[in-house]
Structures are given as C-alpha cells and as structure tokens.
C-alpha cells in the first residue's frame, strides 16, 4: 500500500465521524483516492447483463474465460458479459451453488486477467475496502464492519413483502435439495402441518430441486390459492395441501425492503442465508453484486453477494469461494430455475 494513500485514508478517519463515513465515501475526492486501488482489479471485473439489462458484476477467475457472479440475479433471458475492453460477448451458465448464491459463467475469450486472491481473515473491523467496476472508479467504498464469520443455522426464508403466495418457512441451505429448517407460527405452512426437517419434492406435480425453483413457483401463485406439496418425512413420502397466504410485508404495511427502497437504498432480493459472510458498510447497488471486494492493495478478499441493509453489504470470503471454483466448472447444470 502506498504511503500517500495510507496518510490520506488516516486523515479521513480523523475528520469523518464514523456514522458519516458511508456518505463521505461518495465524495469525488475520496473516489479519486481509490482509483489506484481498483485500477488492476477492474481489469478482472465484467458487467453481466441479462436480456440486455444490467444484472450483476462478475469476477474473472481464470485467463481462459471463467467468470464468477451472483446466481439469483441471472434469470430472465440471454446472459452476456461486457468485458473490461468494452466488448460484449455471450456467456454460458455452467454451474451454480445455491447456499453461497454463486454462479460460474463461461465466455469464449482467452488471455483474460484473473483476480488475485488474498486471505479475508486479514481484513479487520475498520479496514478499508473497495468494490471495482468496469471503469476507472470503484462502484463502492467502505470499511469492514464485521469480520468474516460463519452464520450458524444458515437459512433462507420463503419470500415476504412481494407479490406471490406465502408459505411461512425457512430453508436449510446447507442441504442439497429443499428441506425446511423452520416453520413460522401462524402461517399457512404451520396450519397445513408442515414440519422442520420435511423435504419438499414436488409443487403441484412439478419437481422441485432447489429453493430458487420453489420461489419461482410461489411467485406465480397468489394468496388464497391451494397447492399440493409432495414431501418426504422420516423417509416416508406424503402429500400435503396448503392454502397460501399473503406475505407479512403485504399486510397493512411495508416490508423492510420497501422501507429501505423509499430511503433510496434498494436491497438485494436474495440477501440472507449465506453460510459465511464478510460484512462491510459499502453502499452497493444490487446489480453491483457478484464482483470482487478488494483491500487497499487491490487483492480480492471475497465476492460481493448482497446489499442487505442501508449500510450493510455482504461478501462471500475468499476462503469459502476458492474451494468451490473447480466444482462450479465441472458440475452439471441443474434444472434451470423458473423465471420470476
């Protein structure tokens, strides 16, 4: 790290009250200071588009065209990548990992510059981080607010506060299929008799292989619709009829996400249930997730995976990402999730 940069950042810490840092990092002066930090990693970052619209960022992980991105944002059409040189190329979705919400893309381009990884455990609370984009400026700047940690009982709740039917369950994302980890009280799932540990096999006769597929099927329904779930409980299969309800965020008030939206802070749709995260206070847009999070040396601490709150963003730490790379390149693509 250059001495000049260190002195500039130290001075900023002295003059900026901690609660104001998120706003301070948007200033042109601070953005200019970080240009040298993201100069190299921006050459390893791509813009991922779905049906021609910005969907996410991606991190180049090998010179022969392998790119990592955020899986849940890559739905709804043809996937392309705008490379660091500005050229847009087709991308193939080869593999994905639902618990970490990571997707592996392949483009027919050689000679790319892959990211340079570093140990996220070296990133302590208060350390500066930056999120490179495809241009000279970082897309976000912040500091580490919570060190990398394992999230015990990692789960993802069935959607709330948005159109579609509501079950009232949380999923066990460490399980390779769709298994219920928790049934919330006074919900359609509880009234129908669903229990923690149940594995959902089919939804109205359609096979369900992962939580993304179940969410897609739920989004097609509305409160009051009856659905038939085939489940496996204690190695025995049975069918349960459920009358879907309205999500809590749709009942007489706004969901947390909607409140944040009104405050100018749009959140990622998938922002919970990750097995391990590194939390920072960078103000990321949801479509700027999927790209690298770097330290002041431009080395990658992890992959930005969610804008979770007004001043909360999450990254999957490098130690969790790197062991997945080979598997994501070779895994046979599961049944494509339903479009939402």
What is this entry, summarized?
By secondary structure, this protein is of the alpha+beta class.
Describe the protein.
- Helices cover 17% and strands 33% of the residues.
- It has two domains: 1-151 and 274-340, Beta Barrel (Thrombin, subunit H), CATH 2.40.10; 155-250, PDZ domain (Pdz3 Domain, Roll), CATH 2.30.42.10.
- The chain has helices at residues 3-15, 21-24, 28-33, 35-38, 188-192, 211-219, 256-262, 318-321, 325-330; strands at residues 45-50, 53-60, 66-70, 79-82, 88-90, 92-97, 102-106, 128-132, 138-150, 155-157, 169-172, 180-183, 199-203, 206-207, 226-233, 236-243, 276-280, 292-294, 300-309, 312-317.
- A seven-stranded antiparallel beta sheet has the order 5-4-1-2-3-7-6. It has a six-stranded antiparallel beta sheet with strand order 8-9-17-20-19-18. The chain has a four-stranded antiparallel beta sheet with strand order 14-13-15-16.
